[in-house]
Design brief:
Shape: elongated
Strand content: under 5%
Mean pLDDT: 87
Helix content: 55-70%
CATH superfamily of the domain at 419-643: Transmembrane di-heme cytochromes, Chain C
Oligomer: single chain
Number of helices: 35
CATH architecture of the domain at 419-643: Up-down Bundle
Distance between the termini: 103 Å
Number of strands: 4
CATH topology of the domain at 419-643: Fumarate Reductase Cytochrome B subunit
Strand order of the largest sheet: 1-2
């Protein structure tokens, strides 16, 4: 408090030294015009601004008693009014605040003097109603200073500024614990100048800056000295002091402006975030791991442990990195003071596990710490891998044999039955090509999006890495485009194709049959709908395939040739195409797996599989059951009766075209 009083006395003394004896007369002359609230002028940027001076506010400021000419030197000695339109800006450092002015000129703000966005003295201290920093309404008071700084550092225009890139610092600061402390009146809460300095504010890249990588710990120590001592004792503080810039400082872990309480779920040092988003930034970085010999599986071994899995599952009690290694005074296990030194490890575990002993503590660690654990773990792992392959493989083989038997029995049972030709050989061929192309596209497409999936490792085992994957994906895409063109020609230039197209067109009766079919299977009515050649499910699948093929082809070509398409389309088309391509692929895959496979494989009347997609034929009984309207159409054409004649033994399967 004594220091603050001395500062106030010094400011007052400086003002008195600069006082002009004829100030009162000069002020009256100036205020004759400038006391008019409607008076305006044009500033150096060509913008119209108010030239009004509030005499009461000026007299209540720290410059009370000073004359206008003490700051506006251009007015000294003039006798004719009004004065010239353009005056030099007031220079606070020319006579009164010389030392502060020199410091300011070497700061980041002072060096940006040619930048139109650069602040002046008045930008921070106000012009005529300058108040002491101790005054609660002063622009430079701790409570007001963030808002003062936000006048510039909250402007979107600064995104294009050559000297400033961070424009959301104010918003982030106001969400943090420091701003919360100031709002509550906590005097020790940090405001902007506590971290950045005031007149001596410098860029973070400047070695003399308070927020330089090397200086942040000492800047934070002004309030957090006990933590600073712990940090300096730890390996991170020692490494940073030696100039190892890869070592984290306070901001690397806690953030810069939006510093939150540890209990806040949004804080990077919250228990749920610390391991993955703070410690993992370095300890899971291959370059840092190799550079400092940290062991390439220490972080992943934690993620695979109970603690790591529990944290991912939302636990707030499971141990994170700081639980065992501490937060600030982190030391290597060889240091006797380390929390993970063999002599201290049991006590560390007992913080959570009260009955922990040395054997327990030794059993739960990064596997690289004990080579014998690592070897034994690998042996057990491979025993189980071999066992899983053999046992599950035997189970799969066993079940495939049973399934194969039922397929053979169904094939034999349907072979002796009279049949009709549902699909021509051309149509079976088209379906086969679509099936192959679709499956290959799904596998190779999702392999790009999910490279860590287990089935992708199977592709990698066979040498299908990204280069091969991309080529195979494009070959399958061309195969799908080819069969689409083939199908279009079939539809419009063949008699069977035109018939198929007509049958595939949606009709009003399809809507009625949806509700009739659902009511029948819910037991509400006794009569099934009489479907024609295609029912509503088949039509829906067909037109979904047509739509999906068009969408996937269009977006796929944009992703394949982005430079060409962005030469005449807006840039967002690439990202939108990527999103559409991905989710359309998911929609198509799930539709096939859930809808199509049910009706051709898992439906109780089709299980274990319909053979129509292979032979193109259906038994007459299947036609009667699933497509009674088509069956009636065939009867009218007197083609089904030929298959139902009395001399069945001498008949061969008839083809109905």
């Amino acid at each position: 408090m004594k220091v603050l009083k001395l500062l106030g006395a010094f400011t007052l003394a400086a003002s008195l030294i600069c006082f002009s004896a004829h100030g009162q007369d000069d002020n009256e002359t100036c205020l004759a015009c400038h006391e008019d609230p409607d008076l305006t002028g044009i500033n150096s940027k060509g913008v119209e601004v108010s030239m009004y001076v509030n005499a009461a506010a000026m007299n209540a400021s720290v410059h009370s008693g000073m004359g206008c000419v003490d700051c506006h030197a251009d007015l000294r000695g003039i006798e004719e009014y009004p004065h010239k339109e353009r005056l030099a800006s007031a220079d606070c450092s020319s006579e009164c605040h010389v030392e502060a002015g020199q410091v300011f000129k070497s700061s980041a703000h002072g060096l940006a003097v040619h930048n139109p966005n650069a602040p002046t003295c008045a930008s921070c201290h106000d012009s005529h109603n300058t108040l002491s920093q101790l005054h609660p309404e002063a622009w430079t008071s701790p409570k007001k200073l963030p808002y003062t700084c936000s006048r510039c550092h909250h402007k979107q225009v600064l995104t294009d500024d050559p000297d400033v890139r961070i424009t959301d610092s104010f918003d982030r600061y106001m969400r943090g614990i420091h701003a919360e402390g100031i709002a509550k009146g906590i005097g020790s809460a940090a405001s902007c100048d506590d971290c950045h300095g005031m007149h001596n504010l410098k860029k973070a890249s400047d070695p003399a800056s308070m927020v330089n990588k090397m200086n942040i710990p000492s800047t934070c120590s002004k309030c957090h000295n006990d933590i600073y001592i712990q940090y300096n004792r730890g390996i991170h503080g020692k490494a940073l002091a030696l100039g190892i810039l890869d070592s984290p400082n306070c901001a690397d872990c806690h953030g810069e402006h939006e510093i939150l309480e540890i209990d806040n779920p949004g804080s990077p040092v919250n228990a749920s975030n610390l391991s993955d988003y703070v410690c993992g930034k370095c300890h899971n970085d291959p370059l840092i791991v190799e550079k400092f010999g940290l062991g390439d599986d220490r972080f992943t071994s934690y993620q695979d442990s109970y603690h790591g899995l529990a944290i991912h599952g939302g636990s707030i009690k499971a141990a994170n990195c700081a639980s065992c290694h501490k937060a600030h005074d982190i030391l290597p296990s060889a240091n006797p003071a380390s929390s993970i030194h063999p002599n201290n490890l049991t006590a560390t575990c007992q913080k959570c596990h009260i009955n922990a002993n040395y054997a327990f503590a030794s059993s739960y660690t990064h596997k690289t710490a004990y080579a014998q654990f690592n070897r034994l773990d690998n042996i057990v792992k491979w025993i189980y891998i071999v066992a899983i392959v053999l046992i599950v493989g035997a189970m799969l083989t066993h079940n495939l044999i049973i399934l194969g038997r039922y397929l053979i029995l169904k094939s034999r049972a349907t072979k002796a039955q009279p049949k009709v030709q549902r699909f021509s050989g051309n149509m079976v061929y088209q379906h086969m090509i679509v099936t192959i192309a679709f499956i290959v596209l799904v596998i190779t497409g999702f392999a790009l999006r999910y490279p860590d999936a287990w089935w992708v490792s199977v592709l990698n085992f066979f040498g299908i890495f990204e280069n091969a994957r991309s080529v195979i994906h494009r070959i399958a895409a061309f195969l799908l485009l080819y069969i689409s063109a083939h199908h279009a020609l079939f539809l419009f230039f063949t008699k069977r194709g035109r018939y198929q197209f007509k049958e595939l067109l949606p009709v009003k009766n399809d809507i009625a049959q949806i509700f009739q079919n659902l009511r029948y299977h819910l037991g509400m009515i006794d009569e099934k709908p009489k479907f024609g050649f295609y029912d509503y499910t088949m039509k829906a699948e067909y037109w979904a395939l047509v739509w999906g093929t068009f969408v996937m082809a269009f977006t796929g070509f944009i992703l394949w040739y982005p430079t060409f398409f962005t030469s005449f389309l807006p840039p967002w088309v690439v990202k939108i195409s990527e999103t559409i391509h991905f989710y359309e692929a998911w929609l198509a895959t799930l539709a096939i797996a859930i809808f199509h496979f049910f009706f051709v494989m898992f439906h109780p009347e089709q299980y274990p599989m319909s053979f129509t997609w292979l032979t193109g034929k259906m038994t007459v009984s299947e036609v009667q059951l699933h497509h009674p309207a088509w069956y009636e159409e065939l009867k009218q054409q007197k083609q089904v009766e030929q298959s139902l004649g009395s001399d069945a033994d001498s008949k061969t399967e008839e083809t109905v075209t």
